[in-house]
Amino acid sequence: MADTTGLTKDAGWEVGVRETVAAPLPAVWDYLLGEGLAVWLGEIDSLPTEKGATFATADGVRGSIRSYTEGLRVRIGWQPDDWPHDTTLQITVREAATGTTIGFHQEKLADREERRMMLGHWKNVAAAIGAHFSA
């Protein structure tokens, strides 16, 4: 039987990665929406927060804001310029015993291979963010 890890009934293939950093939630949120934006989204001056607002990064990722809850969650449409389809990416932050847990969840991926690629990508992003807070 084929490996269907990450295949959902309604949202296609999905992937989730979490990283807990030793920093208070407000500092993590400010980093993710400030200087850390380039780490997870790409080169962009700032991310709009109004639902429906669109954005594009210098390296070709485009999308729109699906929802934005200050200090908790950003949910966006996320599509690199070489992909023929849109995905949904959600970034969440939550207080943890040792600091703050950052969660990346992406759904509507095309297939197992795209899921595998994005799992590696988000693990690298999470590690880079973790390294920032452990420096």
What descriptive keywords fit this protein?
37% strand, Alpha-D-Glucose-1,6-Bisphosphate, Chain A, domain 4, globular, alpha+beta, single chain, 3 helices, 135 residues, six-stranded antiparallel beta sheet
What does this structure look like?
The chain has helices at residues 25-33, 37-40, 112-134, and strands spanning 13-21, 54-56, 61-69, 73-80, 87-96, 99-109. With 135 residues, the chain is an alpha+beta fold. The protein has a single domain (14-134), classed as START domain (Alpha-D-Glucose-1,6-Bisphosphate, Chain A, domain 4, 2-Layer Sandwich), CATH 3.30.530.20. The protein has a 6-stranded antiparallel β-sheet with strand order 1-6-5-4-3-2. A hairpin with a 2-residue loop joins strand 5 (87-96) and strand 6. The longest helix is centred in the C-terminal third of the chain and has 23 residues, at 112-134. The termini are far apart.
- Shape, per Cα inertia axes: globular
Number of helices: 3
The CATH H-level superfamily is START domain
Model regions low in confidence, pLDDT < 50 over at least 5 residues:
none
Which fold name fills CATH's third level, the topology? Alpha-D-Glucose-1,6-Bisphosphate, Chain A, domain 4
Distance N to C terminus: 44 Å
Please state the CA-atom Rg, rounded to the nearest Å: 15 Å
Portion in strands: 35-45%
Helix percentage: 25-40%
**Structural class of the secondary structure composition?**
alpha+beta
**Regarding CATH, which class?**
Alpha Beta
Number of strands: 6
Strands in their spatial order, largest beta sheet: 1-6-5-4-3-2
Main sheet specs = 6 strands, antiparallel
What is the residue-averaged pLDDT? 94
Our count of domains comes out at 1
